Model the fold of this input.
Amino acid sequence: MTAPPSLEYFRVTGIQSETTTEQLISALSAKFSDNECDIQVEVSIVPQCDATDDTKTGLVYFTTKVSKFLDALYHGDEETLVDTTIGELCFDKTFYGLTQLYPTTTQRKITADVIAVTGLEGHAFNSWRGRSKLKTMWLRDFFSNDFPSCRTMIYGYNSKLIGTGVTILDYSLGLLEDVKKARGTKEFRKKNGQLYSLATALAACVGNPLNPAPESA
Done:
């Protein structure tokens, strides 16, 4: 089965903190076969959401078509490991868990954490994209300009539910655990902004846990 023309983004994790965008593009381009010379790579590198993880995450888009080194993602695998010149990287297109969409400005503190949760049968990343071929992902493309000091994240989960043996409550508790990792210590929460949520269809099922009562000092 040949991968379809690229209209989707991929997430890549395990990027060393000192890696630049140019180095990541070069490492991925080196994996292309001889008949993939027409593919160009668009990438952005963002921080990991887990405050204890010093690696970074990449959001990757391939023009014209998806490279064959990601074929496993079209044969039932949720993720695939790729050995590159900058180390072993993990690719997926499910976006399960938390993913930050753009880096915040380094000159200012984080004024707010925003977490967008898609509804059932949705996709963590694609549900927030426009329907045109312009690749616009409005949470990333618009919020990065309008709210550069907000840490905007999406949360992904297997939203089909049927056949997974997992309940909405299970996913909600998983979301809460990821939020705890992202928010870090009480000192982090004092230093940075409040937590807000968008379209919390999942969270609402357990009383909207993303907007709890204010924490005591």
Q: What stands out?
A: Confidence is low (pLDDT under 50) at residues 1-5, 200-209, 212-217. The two ends are 56 Å apart (CA to CA). The chain has five helices and nine strands.
